[in-house]
Amino acid sequence: MPWQSLAADPSTAARYEAKVYRGGPTDCHWWLGAISDSGHGKIRAGSRPAGTSRVVSAHVLGWAIHHGTDALRGGAVVIRHICDETSCQNPEHWMAGDRLQNILDFQARRNLSGHALADVRGPAGRAVAVRDAILAAAPGREADAIAAALAAGHPSGDHQDALW
Ligand SMILES: [Zn+2]
């Protein structure tokens, strides 16, 4: 994947930025575009006339835009989400790692009560719910909409919190 040329393309970077919802600087920055079956943001990068057009994972493109392409050389690297929100585009919530680390993280955290990976909707359902909640929220009400969309993925956890 020619990440360097894709990340350097101004129209690709502008289209990427237009699909990211940013609340606070330390919050997850949610993807508002297409979401894959695995819950990752997808975007068409590059230029059709130039023959460089292709659909890529939004957070990997974001990594190339914000952190450069050195870590992406060789192809064995995966960009992991420290926050475990697959659609998150906050550059501070990513780290470069490998597929095995990703699998081990998933297995270690998927059963934690209330955790993103324990969402009953799965990662794609969760990412779509948050995206749709932001897009439907009245201006200024996005934070409440996000909180409600996240909480809806943990119906039993919420009940437990209310009891105790
Ligand atoms: Zn995040």
Short note summarizing the structure:
Helices cover 43% and strands 14% of the residues.
Give a written overview of the molecule.
With 164 residues, the chain is of the alpha+beta class. It has one domain. Helices cover 43% and strands 14% of the residues. It is built from 7 helices and 7 strands. The strands form 3 sheets. Strands 3-4-5 form a 3-stranded antiparallel sheet. Strand 1 (20-21) and strand 2 form a beta hairpin. The chain is globular, with a radius of gyration of 17 Å. The N and C termini lie far apart (50 Å). It binds zinc ion. Zinc ion (ZN) is lined by residues 28, 83, 85, 88, 90, 93.
Main beta-sheet annotation:
3 strands, antiparallel
Helix content: 40-55%
Task: Extract low-pLDDT stretches.
Answer: 158-164
Decide which structural class fits the backbone. Answer: alpha+beta
> Terminal Cα separation, in Å?
50 Å
